[in-house]
Design a protein that fits this description.
Number of domains: 1
Number of helices: 6
Oligomer: single chain
CATH class: Mainly Alpha
Shape: elongated
CATH architecture: Orthogonal Bundle
Helix content: 55-70%
Length: about 120
């Protein structure tokens, strides 16, 4: 049986709710707006192209043309992905003349990516 399957031994055999534990769990749960924002971030991270972009930008700043060459995508496709990532505050850019250079927005994004990669590699 793999980790996604549920056996009868995985379930409670009697129905009992300890309200103190439920209250403590409820108090530690983030507000709905925070939960929704995090869910939107994870939805954005569910795309392999966006993971590749973030992974690349975690080690260095790159311009759109460099990302296009690296990923083998059109400039339009890369720009679309960057616009989504920028909208969620995962990447930022700076202009230098006619060039737009992208990098991760902050260390939290790199940490989130690194933790996700570590989790997948250790499975």
């Amino acid at each position: 049986m793999d980790k996604t399957e549920t056996s009868m031994s995985d379930l409670c055999e009697v129905e009992y709710v300890e309200m103190g534990r439920v209250r403590m769990a409820l108090e530690s749960m983030p507000e709905n707006t925070i939960v929704n924002a995090l869910a939107e971030t994870f939805r954005c991270l569910s795309d392999p192209t966006r993971i590749r972009i973030l992974s690349t930008l975690s080690s260095q700043e790159l311009c759109v043309c460099e990302l296009t060459s690296l990923l083998g995508l059109t400039g339009s496709a890369v720009s679309h992905q960057l616009r989504l990532l920028r909208g969620l505050g995962l990447v930022r850019y700076r202009k230098e003349g006619k060039m737009a250079y992208y990098t991760l927005d902050d260390a939290h994004v790199g940490n989130l990516l690194a933790e996700g990669l570590r989790h997948v590699r250790e499975r």
